[in-house]
Design a protein that fits this description.
Layout (H helix, E strand, L loop, with lengths): L1 H4 L4 E2 L2 E2 L5 H44 L20 H14 L1 H9 L8 H11 L3 H12 L21 H20 L3 H19 L4 H30 L5 H15 L2 H27 L5 E2 L3 E2 L5 H28 L5 H7 L15 H10 L3 H31 L6 H6 L18 E3 L6 E4 L25 E4 L11
Antiparallel strand pairs: 1-2, 3-4, 5-6, 6-7
Helix pairs in contact: 2-12, 3-4, 3-6, 3-7, 4-7, 5-7, 6-8, 7-8, 7-9, 8-9, 8-10, 8-11, 9-11, 9-15, 10-15, 11-12, 11-15, 12-13, 12-14
Amino acid sequence: MIADRVENEVLGGEAVEPVPRRYWWLKRISLTGGMLLVGIAGLHFWWAGYVERRWAQVIAEAQAAGEPVLPEDFNAATIADDENAAVLYLRAADMVRDNAELSRLAARGQSPSQLTAETLEEIGRQLDAHDFFFNLLREARERKGLAWPIEYKSPLLNVMLPDLAHSRACAGLLVLKARWAADQGEVGAAISAVRDVYGLADALSAWPSLLAHMHAVAMNHQGALTLEALLPAVGDRLASPDAPAELRREMDALLATLIDEAPLVRGVELAIAMERAMQLDTVSLMVDGTDERELRFVGAIPKRSVTGSAIYGPMFKMAGVRMAKYMAAYIAAVRAPTWPEHVECLANAPEIPTETSGFNGPTGMLASILLPSLGGACKTHYEGLAKRRLTAVAVALRLYEVDRGRRAESLDELVEHGYLPRAPGDPFKLGATLQYAPDAARPLIYSVGRDGKDDSADYVNQVAPIDQCDCDAVLFLDGERPVQPKP
């Protein structure tokens, strides 16, 4: 052995002490451990670089698709206040908040079908005292520019949004105004008020927020039920010899609004894109730190720690990449024209681990905090599309009857004569159109509803603003909605 051979050798007149064997093994272990640590560090830095490239890729893909993904992407172009409809909508919401009488009336407007004639007259007299409020909403609808005055910046979780409850109250007051005007024989004013409801709904759809979009869907439901009650009287007035030309213009404009579904579709896309931007922004802040004291829903976030970021940063950012891919799949899926196609689009969506322990713990923890429940929201969106299409068909049928003296025998006639651009598809049944029963005891049109099954127009008498049942969604053409709650 080497140690034995050098035991008695002398260098420079000094004896060389033998090296104990145990130290040779220690050196080998140390060298191996050092090489292993270098390898782990190299692998970690390679992984960090890979994650950064994936992070940049998901942002670039969204921008290439024309989708907003960074906080500043959601900031609208500046519009002068005297041209911006959003300024008036916010002012009207403030009026509801600050006026006790308007707030009280708005609460009663959420269920207008339950009002008696005496109650409606009492409410109507009070509404007449608030012409300035209703003129404000009318002017807002007529303005061409719309930019909600909110600056989106990091941290997005801390961007405070106005209270949407007061905007929703504005729609309830407009519904009461429409019912009161129709009761007084002023059907033109009633239709104009309904147009204001849809104007407000479409304006809220331009707000990148899931909550705002759900409010917009609810307003479409309110508009549908209101028109169901008003259309018979409107038809009678249009068919009279002295029918005002302005009423027909109002109806034509209303039909054009209902046919245009772009605000609803764009609204849900923006809402999901905002959720994705919020997730990416929050993950970035959790890795890099922030000067903010804390983030809403998340808690305190420390300032940047180089050591901490190097260790857990890639892990959190990879979780952010997975969530961004998941949200991108939802944005693509909500563009599908029907709910079955939407579900099919999501079949290949990436899965997000939900467990909060083990290897996938960080991803599951972030997902449980940052991922919204999109399934129900998206299904409600398709319900909004169904309500809008049903209402468009009801308006088109009424105009057809006024012009030709008879009700259309099929929906294809509405397309042939230019009242509708295409056959109205049912959002809940692939390849099917809305169902039309002109010869029923109560003529109606309907969608098969959330469960996709045709229940032959079985329905629930809806008082709530958004359907939450699996029955058919029905619109009665003669304004007679019977009370038939489903067990």
